[in-house]
Design brief:
The longest helix has about 70 residues. This protein is mostly helical. It is rod-shaped, with a radius of gyration of 32 Å. Helix 1 runs antiparallel to helix 3. Helix content is about 90%, strand content about 0%. It has one domain.
């Protein structure tokens, strides 16, 4: 009987040791999974922040282009300015919208930056598709602004040439 008690005791110790090793392996596996999930979230969050920053830069670029052409137009003769009066909405409507959109992109960047790992995952999953669609709309708006500016620059040149030939009075 003494031998069977010793064998039983050793088997119990081996089982307890095995359970302890299994528990440590499990907790390590959980920690590694959590770390991988956190890293993936941070990577995705950084990518989204980069896209928002690019969008913000697009707004800033379009705003500078419009302000630049506004400056050029302001130093043209009054007849040229009057002939191009139909482009005023570029300065009175579109430019303020760009400024507002840039502020909104800055606010969005700050909001995304504040997302924390646990609570940010659900916000990321919920909001990312909408944000990506908005960012695509931002690119379209930027391209439209650049086309409008290019057209206005062309019209300024034409109107200035017409003014020099005495065709604008």
């Amino acid at each position: 009987m003494d031998g069977s008690v010793i064998i039983s005791t050793l088997a119990l110790l081996v089982s307890v040791g095995s359970a302890l090793v299994s528990y440590k392996a499990f907790t390590h596996s959980v920690n590694v999974h959590e770390l991988e999930t956190t890293l993936a979230f941070e990577r995705d969050k950084s990518e989204l922040l980069m896209h928002v920053e690019q969008s913000r830069n697009l707004f800033s670029s379009a705003q500078r282009e419009i302000e630049n052409v506004k400056f050029v137009l302001a130093y043209e003769p009054p007849q040229v300015q009057k002939a191009l009066g139909s482009y005023d909405n570029l300065f009175t409507e579109f430019l303020p919208k760009l400024v507002g959109a840039e502020r909104q992109a800055t606010s969005l960047w700050n909001e995304i930056y504040e997302w924390q790992d646990k609570t940010g995952r659900s916000a990321f999953a919920h909001h990312t598709p909408r944000y990506r669609a908005l960012l695509e709309n931002d690119r379209v708006a930027h391209q439209s602004a650049l086309k409008c500016v290019a057209e206005l620059r062309s019209q300024i040149t034409r109107a200035h040439e017409a003014y020099e030939r005495g065709q604008l009075g």
